[in-house]
Amino acid sequence: MSDAYTEAQDFAEKVGVLNDLSHWLGEVLHAGRVDRALEIGGSGGLLAGLFASRHGNVICTDIVDWDMKYGGEGMKLLREKFARNGHALVTERLKYIPADAQNLMFRDDWFDIVFSLNAFEHISDPALALREAVRVTRPGGMLYLRFDPVWTADSGCHFLHRIGAPWAHLLLGDEDIAGLMRTNGADEDEIASYRQDMNRLPVNYYQNILPNLVAELGCSMVFFTPWSGTVDPDYVHHPNLAMAAARLNLDPDELLVRGFQFVIRKG
């Protein structure tokens, strides 16, 4: 099994997400252009860059300082990636700022839209991050959160290709998993990422706690959906599914849930 990265696939995924985000921007804000947008957990800035080209000014944040990681050439490298894949990056509309989603430095009621893709399964306290996202969104503004795979999914470890069996991360200790990863070619950075980079929260956290918090914060849930699936269709018959469900005292169907989407209106 391989998780080989390709830029073409990355762009295709992000364009698909942007199309969905654009749909909700029209439905909730009745606008195609925005003055101030914020992405939480934007990694290298690909989605933020696409958003900027279509919708307007956006600040991309991530806990990792990606610009420093690439010697201060992060924007240059992103512009080159866009050009290689037939896209134009409107750099004057895009700004990158390293920031902790759980402690944003931005003022209250500032952004028209806050969006996040594949970050909330990593953030250690998603409820705190959601509170912060709501705080910095203007009244009547929109929040769009989409993320997978959550920890209890078949590939929720994010390193299934280095472990070799679905849901094994729910059945084995970290040292056993680290041994499997090394056997399957993982380096120590990957093993450290496995240990540290996922919040390991169960599926019911996202199904119950976060939706309840949306109401508590006085926001409206415009759209909320989980989706289910496995990396390999045959995994639904894998013995690890039943064993992990029994160990966690969960229904097996809950371990088939991969991810979630929230579309929220503030106030």
Tell me about this structure.
Helices cover 40% and strands 21% of the residues. It is of the alpha/beta class. A seven-stranded mixed β-sheet has the order 3-2-1-4-5-7-6, sandwiched between helices. Helix 2 links the parallel strand 1 (34-40) and strand 2. The termini are far apart.
> How would you name the oligomeric state of the polypeptide chains in this document?
single chain
How widely separated are the two ends?
A: 45 Å
The Rg value, from CA coordinates, equals 19 Å
State the strand order across the main sheet. 3-2-1-4-5-7-6
Mean pLDDT: 96
Q: Provide the helix percentage.
A: 25-40%
- Which parts are unreliable, with pLDDT below 50 for 5 consecutive residues or more? none
Strand composition percent: 15-25%
Helix vs. strand class: alpha/beta
Shape: globular
Largest sheet: 7 strands, mixed
State the helix count: 10
Number of strands: 7
Order of helices and strands: HEHEHHEEHEHHHHEHE
